[in-house]
From TrEMBL:
This is M48 family metalloprotease. Residues 1-22 form the signal peptide. It comes from Sphingomonas brevis. Residues 226-256 are annotated as: Disordered. Residues 243-254 have a biased composition (Low complexity). GO terms for molecular function: metallopeptidase activity. It is an enzyme of class 3 (hydrolase). Its cofactor is Zn(2+).
Amino acid sequence: MRTPLVLLVASAALAAPLAADAQQPRYLNPRDVQEATRQHAEVVEEFGGAETGPRASYVEGVGRRIASYSGTANAGQVYHFTTLNSAVENAFAVPGGYVYLTRQLMSIMNDESELAFVVGHETGHIAANHAQARKSAANSSAIWGVLGQILGTVVGGDAFGGLISQTAQQFSKSRLLSFTRDQEYQADVLGIRYMTAAGYDPNGGATMLTQISRSTALEARMQGDRNRSTPEWASTHPLSENRAAQASQLARQSGRTGGLRNRDVFLGQIQGMIVDDDPAQGVIDGRIFTHPDLRLSFAVPTGYLMQNSTRAVSIQGSGGQAQFSGGRYDGRIEDYINRVIQQLTGGRTQLALGPIQRTTVNGIPAAYVVGRANTSSGGVDVSVFAYQWDANTIYHFVALTRAGQGLAPFGTMVDSLRRISTAEAAAIRPRVINVVTVARGDTIQSLSNRMAYRDFQVDRFLALNGLAANSPLVPGQRVKLVVYGTRRA
């Protein structure tokens, strides 16, 4: 949540015919291009904003170089590569020539050939027209997120423009559907083919897939302590243990030995890059969400998970699901709550509402209401708890619980919202990549001790750098650390 908001792999894949194999240049569908161009700005906003400056230009340059070997007409003009300011490791492509990857995914790369593979893989999905073979959008609920799914069943479908952007809803249903295993393998084949033609070491595909696999495994180990859920849009690339092995086989079959890795150039580009949460969007630390710019903090109940985005923070657990958002509003807090209810229902479904009640939370004027929605599977309580932050700013939680429970499962959460001090806000610093040169006497343990984490320091260091526990460190070798940086003005 960044700023206040106005209320609102089978072996057959190797032999399968690929669209990009055609000798004649292939043109992207003009309708896809038009739609992707129209949605681009809102997609970028939905997923954390775009990186700018030299690093963004660097990624764009590598992407265009790779795309020029895709067999697509006017590839240099029709493909676009955007680096998203997101703490989720992922990359995705949409028909119409738009490829997106996150800074978090870049953080686990170790050289330019791995970047070339990622953008080549995503370009392959577009060039091979995989979108046309995907399952019906009606079966997908990607970016909608957990709250949208439940609300959709409770109060009437696509009616939540104030909580989840219409672009995100449409984009999730039409674009971010999971590819089939064969399509993923085909995209790997194409990505390696493109990067090899561009002069890169084809082994970058296998090392990149291994990096993703290791990072995913480590994330799963840490998940119990982090109170953080992975958004569904980050699940568009299911990994198979066979993909890295296939990539190695493809590299051998390419006949190329060696090729561009450009490790030093790549490491220079990611020096100082933010990893994990960007404080400008708020940070999750265990059960606590803190936004230093908005000067607020709250804690979720034990066992609940959070998911942060530019527009809202979603919370889920065994007792219910909730979402925190809000922003500028000139008017009474009761009118605000009624407007939230109106946006939830879209004016098409009625909630049986109780009275709006006033209260105070940590010195903040607040009000709340609990309503009941009857569904085919039984009743659901829908609650809105709003806070008058200042004269023209209101924040709120929307909570969904089993009928009769009301706000009880989230009682500690709604009571925990508080203002943070200037000192608390200043203490929140971003984590950034720091590329260091191994000195004589450095060990895996000594370097790991410099990582800006309280736990899993050695495991994080090894995964970040693609090292094994017994990997030798050589003086002069360059490795990545994650350290605390300074807040951007």
